[in-house]
């Protein structure tokens, strides 16, 4: 059982924070600056929320040293307040803690390796030759395909599907509805008729990977689809066959990566971004929301495409101008030649 409350002194020591205030102050929950009340702790990571700080009723606030002068309450000083909040959030997480054991309705092949420390929920299926590490949690209705391997301390929320020969590293967290190892979209055309190509590669996830709800990661056609260590994927993302994503990259919802594209490490892709197939994306590339990438990106940096919302009348005028850009560019070149002559 988790504790229901902690003293500020204990919290400060655990986070390595400098405490200014009462170390005996008891904290029993977390809340936003606007909603927090006595006994709750909040945080200030975005300077735009500083306007809420002076009127907050939180018993304590995690913030950076530069913001300490804006409040008279107890403060925990950290250079990265959001990281402090992230670590502390697990202390107050109300999610049920899975206990070791196998539900009677689960179906487990006799050749599967399932340690005693594993938790297997109702109606889960673990197929032949699968191998689970210590303290793995398999939620209700999950399917673990033949010969798949799951590293220790990984969690599969209810209704996750791992196809055959999928490899998960340690401490992975897979949310409900995710499908890992589905067949890639591979078909050969013969006189207008499509013929399915068997997808014989695998999907390999590194350690500490998180996969959001209803995200799909396709298995490789020949080589493997590989997701690096520490990668974070939001809900409703499509990763096609033979894609490689480098360590510690993060992608927001609705991102789509077409087949055989290689994404570097420490990349951040905003929501609804799309990347065409067979491309190479450098390390440390940031795509803003709804960016469409159709060519290689060889240098780190922030990239954008598309247009922001505008009043319909103005947007339509701009759309007409966009279609005229080529003709305008030709006329500009002609004028430049005349001026040079």
If you had to describe this structure to a student in words, what would you say it looks like?
The chain is α/β, with parallel strands linked by helices and 341 residues long. 13% of the residues lie in helices and 28% in strands. Strands 8-10-13-16-19-24-27-30-33-36-38 form an 11-stranded parallel beta sheet, with no helix packed on it. A 10-stranded parallel beta sheet has the order 9-11-14-17-20-25-28-31-34-37, with no helix packed on it. A hairpin with a 2-residue loop joins β21 (187-190) and β22. It starts with 5 loop residues before the first strand and ends with a helix.
Q: Helix proportion of residues, in percent?
A: 10-25%
Strand order of the largest sheet: 8-10-13-16-19-24-27-30-33-36-38
Mind telling me the C-alpha Rg?
A: 26 Å
Backbone shape:
flat
Number of contiguous helices? 4
Kindly summarize this structure in a few lines.
This protein is an alpha/beta fold and 341 residues long. The protein has 4 helices and 38 strands.
Features:
341 residues; single chain; 10-stranded parallel sheet; 11-stranded parallel sheet; alpha/beta; 13% helix; flat
Task: Give the SSE layout.
Elements: E1 6-7, H1 8-15, E2 18-20, E3 26-27, E4 29-30, E5 40-43, E6 60-63, E7 74-77, H2 81-89, E8 101-102, E9 107-108, E10 119-120, E11 125-126, E12 131-132, E13 137-138, E14 143-144, E15 149-150, E16 155-156, E17 161-162, E18 167-168, E19 173-174, E20 179-182, E21 187-190, E22 193-196, E23 203-205, E24 210-211, E25 216-218, E26 225-227, E27 232-233, E28 238-239, E29 244-245, E30 250-251, E31 256-257, E32 262-263, E33 268-269, E34 274-275, E35 280-281, E36 285-287, E37 292-293, E38 301-303, H3 312-323, H4 325-340
Parallel strand pairs: 4-5, 5-6, 6-7, 8-10, 9-11, 10-13, 11-14, 12-15, 13-16, 14-17, 15-18, 16-19, 17-20, 19-24, 20-25, 23-26, 24-27, 25-28, 26-29, 27-30, 28-31, 29-32, 30-33, 31-34, 32-35, 33-36, 34-37, 36-38
Antiparallel strand pairs: 1-3, 2-7, 21-22
